[in-house]
Amino acid sequence: ELVYINGEIIPMADARIGVEDRGYQFADGVYEVFRLYNGRPFTFKEHLDRLERSAAGIKLALPTPRTELEAGLLKLVDRSGVREGMIYLQATRGVAPRNHVFPESPSGTVVAYCRPLPPIPNPGEGEGAKLMAVPDERWKRCWIKSIALLANVLAKNEAVSQGYDEAVFVENGVVTECSASNVFAIINGKIVTHPVGSKVLPGITREVLFQCAAELKIEVDERTLMESEAVRAQELFITSTTREISWVARWNEKYIGQGRCGPLTAKLHRAIQQRVRQETNG
Ligand code: PLP
């Protein structure tokens, strides 16, 4: 298994990160997850753009210029031999004597590696996801893809320990997103989802979904989505880089829709897969 570390590609077992790396001590860093199809990163540019926005959001200057990072990641993918999978990348402010104050000239640490992923169920197939509503105890800069994920980790574990698949954050009756995915309701034929910003990560899959929706002439309504509406929605689904779209079968004890994947969810999923094929085939 190989790892990209500060511009070099070496066996993962040989990689070393300093004990005083600020990522380790303060979660002072950001990350990205890229999806590989056919050995090619999907929406590579969009993910790199978001990485730059996240880094700027924590005043982190990425230690590697973008073109160099891009080339390094493609080389990593190539040498890893992973065709259907993901790249995990994280960038931290690097090693410095422990101090809350930023070091004057941060070294920066960039680490990335590839992992294969199992195939995704065909649109409309597979088991629906079971969501458990939990209070949103995260910070107010959820647009930054920060490596500080403890609130997400605790929420997801709470959900999984009770037999659910994903935790959905609800605050004062408002549905924001899930622990590792965006959430959408189909209400009166429209896609309804909370706007991105302080409480919602600008998902890349969310963006692709919106483009597909525009082509299919399905309206998107970015507004406050109440839990009371979500549980009564015709269809509910979640999106992320690793799952594409999953239809939602249950919200707490309540079954959603007809207990199977809704027609618009399946249609949107087919459209996303078409986009994937266009971008990563041949
Ligand atoms: N929201 C959160 C909190 C996430 O961690 C993720 C990442 O998987 C998403 C949404 C979905 O974003 P993307 O579609 O870019 O993977």
UniProtKB/TrEMBL annotation:
The organism's place on the tree of life at top rank: Bacteria
Entry GO terms, CC: cytosol
Any Gene Ontology biological process: carboxylic acid biosynthetic process
GO MF annotation: an example: D-alanine-2-oxoglutarate aminotransferase activity
Matching SUPFAM superfamilies: D-aminoacid aminotransferase-like PLP-dependent enzymes
InterPro entries with a match to the protein in the record: Aminotrans_IV (IPR001544), Aminotrans_IV_CS (IPR018300), Aminotransferase-like (IPR036038), BCAT-like_C (IPR043132), BCAT-like_N (IPR043131), Class-IV_PLP-Dep_Aminotrnsfr (IPR050571), D_amino_transT (IPR005784)
Catalytic activity: D-alanine + 2-oxoglutarate = D-glutamate + pyruvate
EC number: 2.6.1.21
Keyword Transferase annotated: yes
Signal peptide start-end: none
Cofactor(s) required, per the database record: pyridoxal 5'-phosphate
Family: Belongs to the class-IV pyridoxal-phosphate-dependent aminotransferase family.
Function: Acts on the D-isomers of alanine, leucine, aspartate, glutamate, aminobutyrate, norvaline and asparagine. The enzyme transfers an amino group from a substrate D-amino acid to the pyridoxal phosphate cofactor to form pyridoxamine and an alpha-keto acid in the first half-reaction.
Protein name as annotated: D-alanine aminotransferase
Taxonomic classification: Bacteria, Pseudomonadati, Planctomycetota, Phycisphaerae, Tepidisphaerales
This protein's encoding gene: dat
